[in-house]
Amino acid sequence: MNDFLGKPPFTPVWGKIDENQYFLYNGASMAPLFKPGDMLCVKPRSFCYLHKGDVVVFYLTNKVNNPLHVVHRIISITRNGLITQGDNNPGLDTQEIPKNNLIGLVTSFERKGMLYSVRGGGGGLLHIRIIQVRRFIMKMMSPFNRRIHSLIRRSGLVPRVWRPVIIQIHLMTDHGPLVKYCFGTKTVASWWPQQKFFAVVKPFDLIIIHPEDPK
């Protein structure tokens, strides 16, 4: 997930309209804290006033010296710069961020007309640690969860108690016939008869069986 050097998580849109700067976020490295379209408010902050756990914006330069803006969280502070990491990234950023590359501290963000504060310091660091522990537990539990899910599906119990209205829509496309299974306005499964390709999203796979499976 450390691909931010080639794909900056967000790009500046408003620039500097007061003492702050504003950036439009469009990446994934800081999920679930930020979502694409969030407007980040970045306040200028001296290096000596930063703390571990703060969310900061800094810039890097690519091979043609174009500045790439990045928003990540401070994991540790050294004499020469910052060690950072995206909340949604599995590991630390690959290089130390020099002091001169710091743009500022993210203090808040706007989403759909609502303003939210950004937790930094010890609380922010605890936040990313909880995410990391949760990610580790989910990874360890994933094989077990798949087995449980498979057992539930084979049991046939779910269709007896959950009967959502699923509508089949038959279409003719350039790639042949397509059958869509729709729950309300959402497509929950697709069947391409010619390609023998069937895809269904969870948990609808507990009630929608493969069209060629014996009933």
What keyword list fits this structure?
215 residues, alpha+beta, Umud Fragment, subunit A, 38% strand, elongated, disordered N terminus
Structural summary, described in words:
The chain is built from 2 helices and 13 strands; from the N terminus they run βββββββββααββββ. The protein is of the alpha+beta class. It has helices at 121-155, 158-161, and strands spanning 10-16, 21-25, 39-43, 55-61, 67-77, 81-85, 97-98, 102-111, 114-117, 167-173, 176-183, 186-192, 197-200. The protein is 18% helix and 38% strand. The chain folds into 2 domains: 10-131, Ribbon (Umud Fragment, subunit A); 159-206, no CATH class.
Rg over C-alpha atoms, rounded to the nearest angstrom:
23 Å
Q: How are helices and strands ordered from N to C?
A: EEEEEEEEEHHEEEE
Question: What's the name of the CATH homologous superfamily of the largest domain?
Answer: Umud Fragment, subunit A
Q: Would you state the CATH class of the largest domain?
A: Mainly Beta
CATH architecture of the largest domain: Ribbon
Low-pLDDT residue spans: 1-8, 11-16
Q: Which class best fits the helix and strand makeup?
A: alpha+beta
CATH topology of the largest domain: Umud Fragment, subunit A
Tally of discrete structural domains = 2
Mean pLDDT, all residues: 83
Please give the largest β-sheet: 9 strands, antiparallel
Q: Tell me, what's the shape?
A: elongated
Percent helix among the residues? 10-25%
